[in-house]
Amino acid sequence: MRLDRYLCQTTDLTRSQARSIIRGGRVSVGGAPVTQPASQVDVQAEVTLDDSLLSPPLPRYFMLNKPLGVVCATRDPSQRTVLDLFDVPKRNALHIAGRLDIDSTGLVLVTDDGQWSHRITAPSNHCPKTYRVTLAEPLTAEQVSGLGAGLLLKGESKPTKPATIEKVSELVLLLTITEGRYHQVKRMFAALGNRVVALHRLSIGGLSLDQSLVPGGYRSLKRQEIELL
Ligand code: URA
């Protein structure tokens, strides 16, 4: 991690304050002063500011039960964002590992560990995501086979990867997909002539939404949950 970032994560300094303090020679790594804000520092290294030892920044991992009407963005000039729901220090260091639409609900992962979130969102990792989908029209056998075979979405040339479906009722199903294209679930059903009226994410990889979380509620992930992904 860059030294200026390390300082921002372990103190209340802004990035520009951190840079000028580092340039001023007040920060040492492993006992030696370092004056380059861009120097790389190991998170395990002993870093001092004016001789006080800084505690290493620990990456944080949360699951959120996203409510309706909140945008999956870190900042938005006019709408409430998922980060606005978090009452934690250094909230602006957090980011979202896989977005949901404003009118979708359910599991959203939030972290400040970029490598972890990349593993979840990188298309090459094909991380499965399961959604409870409520449809406007009853699901037909042709639609089930279309989803299983892969569909050509409007404006795209490559079909979707086969999805798995578990029918819950005429209008409700559990759908698992291994991609994360723009508005993918809604567009898949639009391609089949149906329409999604409610979309709730239940799981990402092996991690399921904690059913005790009310909409807008969040909690830290346990060690074994972080490792699942
Ligand atoms: N697919 C969608 O269409 N919307 C979401 O929010 C997630 C997946």
UniProtKB/TrEMBL annotation:
Pfam families: PseudoU_synth_2, S4. Transmembrane segments: none annotated. Its EC number is 5.4.99.-. GO terms for molecular function: 16S rRNA pseudouridine(516) synthase activity; RNA binding. GO terms for cellular component: cytosol. The keyword tRNA processing does not apply. It is an enzyme of class 5 (isomerase). InterPro entries: PsdUridine_s_RsuA/RluB/E/F_cat, PsdUridine_synth_cat_dom_sf, PsdUridine_synth_RsuA/RluA, PsdUridine_synth_RsuA/RluB/E/F, PsdUridine_synth_RsuA/RluB_CS, RsuA_PseudoU_synthase, S4_RNA-bd, S4_RNA-bd_sf. Responsible for synthesis of pseudouridine from uracil-516 in 16S ribosomal RNA. PANTHER family: PSEUDOURIDINE SYNTHASE (PTHR47683:SF4), PSEUDOURIDINE SYNTHASE FAMILY PROTEIN-RELATED (PTHR47683). This is Pseudouridine synthase. It comes from Candidatus Thiodiazotropha endolucinida.
